[in-house]
Each structure stands twice: as structure tokens, then as C-alpha cells.
């Protein structure tokens, strides 16, 4: 299926900057703009009444967040916090609606974008419920590489500045377990990391998921089949 890029249809907007650990929005001050990351990264998470945090996703360059503002009557429990100094552009719902009226292709592009991210979130929820920890960590590394990584000449995908705790939050497990699993994957030659850089062999991890699916461990077919 052809994917449409929302960036093709959106006008430029004023660039805003948020310092590291700045709260961009929260339930008491919900998102009133659709944001696009120009540089940096933003952590999107849900905080339960007991203080438990669930990492929904990490947005990086040329990715959107704050989509809930486009849904009339929707109350969002999302928090968005800058993981580092981050620059964004932002549009109000009225500006987005006006632009869609001028060019309906923007509406289609935004629907496709949101649908693709919802599919990833569904896979993560299913993984947390059904998969073994090692499989979840491998799946998380693939998804994070796809959303945050850059290809290297060696054929790996490089992710910068991603801590073991962030991976643990994403996979729904502890930092200690992530460290153990990543050591295992490193010994197998599936990844390498040092000084804030993580190089992921995506093809090797996809093959690992295929093998685990064949053994009945339930690796998600949609991701394992993606090349």
C-alpha cells in the first residue's frame, strides 16, 4: 500500500525549543497542537493514578506527537517530555483542519501515519501479554531501530543515546533483565554497543523472531515478516 507523507502537505511553522526534561504537555495541560520533531527526542508516556508510568513511544526527527488534539472530545492522559534539547514545529487543530480542506491528501496522510503507529502499539501490548522476555526485548530493539535508528555502511542500524532503562520501559520489563538479554544478543553477534551508541543487526533479530515463532513462542507475524 502506498504511504503518503504528511510533511509533503504541511506548511512550515515557527520552530520552538524545549530543554531537556521539559514537560511539553500533560493531562492538566493537554496537547493543543500537533507537534513535529525537528531535532531531539520526546518521551510519550501514560501515568496511572498510582504513579506507575507506561512508555507509549519515543518520537524522534520527522515524527509527530500530540495527535489527540485532533480528536474532538477526547481526553488524553498522555505526558510528553523532552529527552534532550528538542526543537519542534507545531500546528493547532484549526490550522490542520483548514489545511485539510485545502488539500484532503493531508487528512489521508495523517490517518495512515496514526494507523501505522497504532499497529506498533498493538503489537507491543500483545507482546507484553504473551511473549517471553527475551522475545520482547528483541522485538523492542527492532521497533526502536525502525523509528529512531540510522543505517550504517556496515549494514546495521545505529541508535544513539538509548539507555537500558529506556529499552526496559519500552519492553515492559526491568533494566537488569534488559542488560542480561542484550549481553546475550551481543554475544550472538546481533548487536553491539558502547559510549551511548547501539548498533542493531535488524536482519539477525528478525531471523531470531522467525525461529522463535517457528518454535511456538508467538513472535508477531507482521513484524517478523517485515524486511
Q: Helices, strands, pairings?
A:
Elements: E1 15-18, E2 23-25, E3 34-39, E4 42-47, E5 53-59, E6 64-65, E7 78-82, E8 86-91, H1 93-102, H2 105-130, H3 133-148, E9 150-151, E10 157-160, H4 164-171, H5 175-187, E11 191-194, E12 197-200, H6 202-214, H7 221-224
Antiparallel strand pairs: 1-8, 2-7, 3-6, 3-8, 4-5, 4-7, 9-10, 10-12, 11-12
Helix pairs in contact: 2-3, 3-4, 3-5, 3-6, 4-5
Characteristic terms for this protein:
Jelly Rolls; single chain; 12 strands; Arc Repressor Mutant, subunit A; 4-stranded antiparallel beta sheet; 227 residues; disordered C terminus; alpha+beta; 7 helices
Number of strands: 12
Based on CA inertia axes, which overall geometry fits?
A: globular
Assign the CATH architecture of the largest domain.
Sandwich
Termini separation: 15 Å
Assign the CATH topology of the largest domain: Jelly Rolls
Q: Compute the CA-based radius of gyration.
A: 18 Å
What are the segments in which pLDDT stays under 50 over at least 5 consecutive residues?
Answer: 221-227
Mean pLDDT: 87
- Strand residues, percent: 15-25%
Question: Which class do the helix and strand fractions yield?
Answer: alpha+beta
Provide the CATH top-level class of the largest domain. Mainly Beta
